[in-house]
TrEMBL record:
Protein name: Substrate-binding domain-containing protein
Residue span(s) of domain Helix-turn-helix: 7-55
Pfam families: HTH_17, PBP_like
NCBIfam families attached to this UniProt entry: excise
InterPro entries noted in UniProt: DNA-bd_dom_put_sf, HTH_17, PBP_domain, SinI_DNA-bd
PBP domain location: 98-283
Length: 311
């Protein structure tokens, strides 16, 4: 491998045939060095080669060591943490954490459900969630209670925001509700499985007794709000689920349908005590709130509130 060659996290995960969050876990534990190009983390080809060769050299014929060792005990010098989620406010949170503590935040851009499962598996430290439960009308907690079984945790509000439907400029098909997506002439573009937007759509279809099989474009997926909005702006679809902010970046109209809570969950374990304290202080800090408020389209009235905590 050339020393000038480098890989993205996704490329490394494909090369090693493991999930991206497993690679984030290796980075978090200091086993795989990374460098940054803007917001993107990259792995130098030589460092990847050294990691692979290092694991090969420690194997024995009788007790081979697996390439990925997820249960290695962390040392005191391990200050990397993984923040999972896609909203811009998480980058701002990471910046404040790095500024006011010894932690070095790493970013995963997985969806809410996949991130929560990764937290259960010990691969994420702070997970952002916006998962609507159609049976209770609640956000996030019904899912957390089902997935983080056996773990103590704290749930904090980060922001609230409007979610709904992107439609083409001028809304030529007069789409105004979830039920309108069931019309035969309406083509949607979907989000990936495990994302909060996909869960919101699926729950609303269930509530309105609409089968996904009857939704044109249901299997066409994009992995973020901007991609969905862009596809609609370019005429590839008539509607898609997203948040208000992306509609102002891309030229589409936005039909607000729900106000969703965007929360943070952190496991309450001894090594996280300092992290929880720092996150609480940041979320209630006026400078942090002012920075979020300046972005517009976010409700910070509950920011920093403890919504649920196990003991």
């Amino acid at each position: 491998m050339s020393e000038e060659l480098s890989y993205t996290i996704e490329e490394v995960s494909k090369l090693l045939k493991v999930s991206k969050l497993t690679i984030y876990d290796l980075v978090k534990k200091g086993e795989l060095p990374v460098f940054r190009v803007g917001r993107q983390m990259r792995v130098d080809a030589k460092d990847l080669e050294n990691y692979i060769n290092g694991n090969k050299s420690t194997q024995s014929s009788t007790n081979p060591v697996p390439l990925i060792a997820p249960h290695r005990a962390e040392t005191k010098k391990d200050h990397n943490i993984v923040i999972s989620g896609q909203d811009l406010v998480l980058d701002i949170l990471g910046k404040h954490i790095e500024k006011h503590s010894a932690y070095k935040p790493l970013r995963s851009y997985a969806g809410s459900l996949n991130s929560l499962i990764s937290m259960y598996n010990g691969e994420c430290d702070i997970v952002s969630l916006h998962m609507f439960d159609g049976d209770t009308g609640e956000y996030n907690l019904p899912y957390i209670k089902k997935i983080l079984i056996g773990y103590p945790y704290i749930l904090l509000n980060l922001i609230s925001r409007k979610a709904g439907l992107y439609v083409q400029k001028g809304n030529p098909l007069n789409i105004t509700s979830w039920a309108d997506l069931g019309q035969q002439h309406v083509k949607i573009i979907n989000r990936e499985k495990g994302s909060g937007a996909r869960i919101l759509l699926d729950e609303q279809l269930r509530i309105h007794h609409i089968s996904p099989r009857n939704i044109k474009g249901y299997k066409h997926e994009e992995t973020n709000h901007l991609s969905v909005a862009s596809a609609i702006s370019n005429g590839l679809a008539d509607a898609g689920v997203g948040i208000e902010k992306a509609a102002k970046i891309v030229e589409v109209d936005f039909i607000p349908l729900v106000k969703e809570r965007y929360d943070l969950v952190i496991l309450k374990k001894p090594e996280n005590e300092e992290l929880i304290k720092i996150v609480k202080e940041i979320l209630t800090n006026s400078a942090f709130k002012s920075e979020i408020n300046s972005l517009g389209d976010y409700d910070i009235s509950q920011t920093g509130n403890i919504l649920y905590e196990t003991f």
